[in-house]
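Run log, item B.
One chain of 124 residues. Sequence copied directly from the ordering sheet:
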Amino acid sequence: MQLLSGLLPALGNLIHVRPHELDFAALGRETRFMRRTLGVQLEAAQQVADYVIGGRRMARIRYGDEEDDWGADHGRCHDCGAAKGQFHAGPGCDVKRCPSCGRQVISCECEYEGDDKRGFPRGT
């Protein structure tokens, strides 16, 4: 409780409201919605095992198999919530790597084919 009472003023200052003005019920609903959405995206992402990049089919990189250590042995992906061995979810995950160039999928310039610019069905 002491931690919470110390955090509330800081949180209120950060988002420019007073702690007693925060709508915790709405924050809880939003958090539950975000968890459900991520769960659906993670489930859908597991169904897409490869991309077509520049006309070549390439296997997607699973969380924990990236060249850099993103902490897969210690927990889920900090951005999309993938567990070690799962494919990253959502087009905006900053840990997801391109199997062609090795850069972040969100910023690489490889030619992906498919339903959107990253070569996978929307939402994966």
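Observations after the first pass:
- Residues 1-15 have pLDDT under 50 and may be disordered.
- Residues 2-113 form one domain.
Flagged for discussion on Thursday.
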